[in-house]
């Protein structure tokens, strides 16, 4: 199996949804990506930064799941990145209430020596210059670089974003962001434009409507599992990305056909993430629950038609 | 194969989209349902009403496709139902500009004698009392009754709507309407509530996001084929319903497993409908084009995962 480098925030989140609210709880892109990827029992390393206020027990949650945390810089005199948000009733839109960058403001990621030859790199949502600096540290071009980003960087650092997008293999982006990045409403046309920016594979996340995978003229559409209740969407996108990258690192098969499976694994893991606040559900997720839900996913999507 | 009764409007539509606008063209639920169902070369009859202004050549378009039009009442002194609408740039929302009920205001559907023993009845969107009156005319309970409806009847005739919903097997409804009918945001919970109103099968149409089929605890999710361009969404829902009901009438297998295939056929036919204004694409649709797109649908959705 391949080694996986995970770059992203490790954070405190405070979340309010129609179902309730939390105090500061464990969050951050690298956290969700790591927890999802750890399901595959691969060798993975998190590259991130936290402050002196960050509990060792939270870091141990990653370490216990075989995520190397040598690359997590602990800035003793600093504070951990903090995000607070409130979801609207439809759970698809949210307001950011507080963003305190804290130690993230000066984050200079350092990939541990032992992971500079990793085959797979998952760049969680961060400033594109930080994402690029991780790729600069790799000894050779990784077999697969997956990048997540958001509209904030399109507004504030578009040139830098284009520079890192040129260097990656897969971009994961939501539908509105794909439209913003390309100026195209049709996701088919938007994906084609993004291909021309560099990535050979484009994953467009549509939340409760599932995810699309594009590779030239090939398309794959994985629906999201319809749920009785979405309790807290925080981290669902990162969990999807972690499942996607983790599965590919595990199987070492970076073909379009196998990426379909990676999308299904990502969607499956994300369907658990939203069932509880923050990381709670992912921290208590058992292998047999994942297997059972994968089978539900098959039931949900597979058909055996006789063409008339 | 089974006989299919199709009840719904036959109309003039005038449509404006970001791509252009039409004069009065052929439209109406029964028209789109009939054109879609005719793909399966079954025995079908349209039950509808038009005015003396309706061109015989339009009726012949149905007749030529083996749709019996004995049940289409031609009110010589009346005018045909006319609808005009304008789509917004996102193609998901539209404004109704004109609704002239004309002969539809006094429509009393009469099912041709030869079709009163039909196994499958497709009730297109109409006043629920009119939909009920069709069921009253059937000699025995049909094997399958499919009903389409819309929010308008929830606002204006909810009791009558509940009475007809009690009598049917499958309801097709869009996501917003499912939420309005049940007061539930989660489509899983909404479908369960609709089950308790009568229908054993619930199809929730989500436009560009596909369609969900529910049957007790079973779910199936057919995505919509991602398109470069949606030219005109008019009739897509009816085309879906016509493909769904037509396929089931053809195969005479009303099981959940076979309804999955019916959903896929419906989605495939609807993906053509939106490519041109009104019925234009459906009138020129060849069998081999449908087969090819069915195969694209398989590519789009099918995966072969090894569960880890």
Automatic annotation (TrEMBL), chains A, B:
Keyword terms of this UniProt record: Kinase, Transferase
Domain Carbohydrate kinase PfkB residue range list: 2-281
InterPro entries noted in UniProt: Carboh/pur_kinase_PfkB_CS (IPR002173), PfkB_dom (IPR011611), Ribokinase-like (IPR029056)
Membrane-spanning intervals of the chain: none
Gene Ontology molecular function: kinase activity
Pfam families assigned to the protein according to its UniProt record, in alphabetical order: PfkB
Protein name: PfkB family carbohydrate kinase
Organism lineage string: Bacteria, Pseudomonadati, Bacteroidota, Flavobacteriia, Flavobacteriales
